[in-house]
Amino acid sequence: MIRSLLEPLTRRRGGPSLMRMLFPLVLFAVTTTLLFAMVQGDDPEDRALTVQERLRPARIAGELRDSTPEITLLLVLMMGGVYVTLNLGLRPLRRLSDLAGDITPATIEARLPVGAAPREVAPLVEAFNAALDRLETGLRAQRDFSANAAHELRTPLATLRAQVESLLEPNERRAASEEFERLGRLIAQLLALAEAEGGATSGSARFDLMALARDVASDMASFILSSGRTIGFDGAVETLMVDGQPGLVETALRNLLENAVRHTPPGSEILMSVTGAGVLRIHDDGPGVPAEIRGRVFERFSRGDPRGAGAGLGLSIVRQIMERHGGVARLVAADRGACFELDFQPRGARLDQSVAPAGSLTAM
């Protein structure tokens, strides 16, 4: 435990400390000043001495021994001045570091203010902004390609499906329809992924997370019930206001519910719940997530069943949407089945709750 507490203090970050680099310089300056004072001493007894006599090691040692308190005080004052100067001079760099740490793929258009940097560091800030320009160009090109490709594939896929199904025998249409459904789902997921990764913040609004979750559960209830599963909803509050894009959050909820349906056997129960702290959970009593893929379940194209109908993009889209809202998507331990959480608490300062008695668990 002690080691874990001391680790942040002992862990090296970056190169050598500026204070450590400047200490020899301060010590040299103090030593030089003292030697100069000894040579140019105003003591009448020293005026008769030659320079060589004044610089004798024994005499210098005696002078230093007699002046130890003054020397210590001088060193402390000089190092204190250096420390204060460095802290004041590096304060703009710390602010720039905080700004740089807040830049994410969703805010890739943000830039560091060159005017806020010291003149000596301005070229580094300009080079950093130029690197962000190049990254933004490449990232937007990739997003535009995914979105355009998905849009362009929709129409020919629908036309091809109609033509193929018209040529097949009735007993062969089911297999073809399943493949077309899989392709259509993949295209829809690519569009959702491009939208989730988009840097634009248009469409951001204040919405009721509780009402949105309840509406999604109601809209998907017929689909879930027809698949042989059941769904329940449990809310700890009546209203939970958050800032964001309700369309993207709805996509995340639908992806999690569809994921639960695909990976649970008929007869399973799916429960959606929302806590008063802004944590939304979707829990099922199915077989759960295999241990070998739990660490990469939110990675793209990660699938528990390689032969399944999914493309391995649904949970990746959920993670991207939560990152864009300043939240976290995670898989948490459960006694049975799988439990996914959408945690909006990192942006808890923007949460506005009305803790009124909410309805108990309702089966749909």
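That was protein one. Protein two is written in the same sequence-then-structure order:
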Amino acid sequence: MNDQEKKIWTELQAKSYETDERFNEMHERLNEIADFLNEKFFHTEKMIADSNRRIEGISKSNGEFCEEYFINCFKENPTFMEERYDRVLEYLRPDPAVIDDEYDLVLRNGRSIVLIEMKYKARLNDVGKMFSKLHSYRANYPMFKDYKIYLCLASFRFSKNIREKADEEGVVLIQQKGDKNEVISKNIRTW
């Protein structure tokens, strides 16, 4: 190898050594950044999980408060559509069940049954779910096949357009008004 080649070779080795040093420094720095981000990500995940638990707790409390309100109202005054009911059944689960289901609140007398689902905020899709409740109730309690059944959603709040949908379907909406319940539906049907 001549002097020119040795000089080029030495320069290439120096550049390679310098590149290796920079790469190692960059690699160390990237590892530090990754460790920092992982730590921040872990703390952020923990904060989000804590917040979600709190929100779920608040949501559950709101739902329980709503249910307790409507149950107590109907226990105190078991009337619906100017008809008196002698049975107020809360959280009814059929045993044995043809179709596994739970009915939040059921009012019953010798002629009619009121199936009431209670929601803190009733949403549009809750209207359609009432028909699966009707189907399961008829299957689970065939002895009431000749009874007329009202389908009701009781809620403190109703989402947009739910009143129109409920009126189209004949599902009764019940809301709190002061210390009483108020039916806010126009088109009331029985099945």
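The CA atoms of residues 42 and 48 lie 10 Å apart. Keep this in mind for the problem set.
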